[in-house]
Amino acid sequence: MSNSFDKIIAKIAKISPDIATCIDTSTHSIKRREILDKKTTCLINIASLTTLGSCHKVLKRSINEAIDADCSCDEILETMLQISFSCGLSRSIDAIFEAKSVFEDRGLLKKKSKDKSDKDDEYETELKYQSENESDDEESKYDSDDGEDKDNSDEKDAQKLETECELDKINDNKVEKK
C-alpha cells in the first residue's frame, strides 16, 4: 500500500478503528490477488473513480500508482475516454484535468509540437493584426489633411482585400480538413 493510503487509514482509525481495520483488510486482500496484472487493476481503479466523479484526491493517488505500475499517460487518458460516455462527459473531463495535474507534477506532459494547424492559426492571427493596424493607419491618414490620403486609399483597400482573401483561404482549408 502507498504511504498516502496508510495516512488515510490512520485518520479513519482515529474516528473508528473497526472501519479502518475493515477497509485495510479488504483492500489488502483485493490487492494481493494476482489474476489481473498491476497495470490493469490500476486502470480499472481509475475508471471506477472517474465514474464516481467526486474522489479527486483518491483519483490523483490512483493515477500516480498507475504511472508507478508503468501505465503510460496515453493508457490512463484512453481509459478515461473509453468510459466518458457511460459515466458522463463532465466526470470524465474532471478526471482528465486531475490526470493533467499529476502528469505536470511528474514532468510527463509532452511538449506540444507545432503542427500545420498551429502555423495556420499563427498566420491568421498575424494577418488579422496587420489588417487591424492598416485600418488604424488609414483612419489616422484621413484625420490628417495631407492630401495623400486619397492617393493611398486605393492601395490600402487592395491590401485589405488581399488580407481578407487570405483569411478566407485559411478558413476554407480548415473546413476541408474537418
Describe the protein in words.
The chain has 2 domains: 34-105, Up-down Bundle (AhpD-like); 116-177. It is built from 8 helices and no strands. It has helices at residues 3-15, 17-31, 38-52, 56-68, 73-87, 89-105, 116-143, 149-177. Helix 3 (38-52) packs antiparallel against helix 4 and helix 3 packs parallel to helix 5. The protein is elongated.
How many individual β-strands?
Answer: 0
CATH class of the largest domain: Mainly Alpha
Q: Any idea what the shape is?
A: elongated
Helix/strand class: mainly alpha
Mean pLDDT: 75
CATH architecture of the largest domain: Up-down Bundle
Q: How is the biggest beta sheet arranged?
A: none
The fraction of residues assigned to DSSP E strands is under 5%
Quaternary structure state of the chains depicted: single chain
Radius of gyration: 28 Å
Report the helical percentage: over 70%
Q: Please indicate the count of domains.
A: 2
InterPro entries: 4CMD/NDH-1_regulator, AhpD-like, CMD-like
GO molecular function: peroxiredoxin activity
Protein name: Carboxymuconolactone decarboxylase family protein
Domain Carboxymuconolactone decarboxylase-like: 31-96
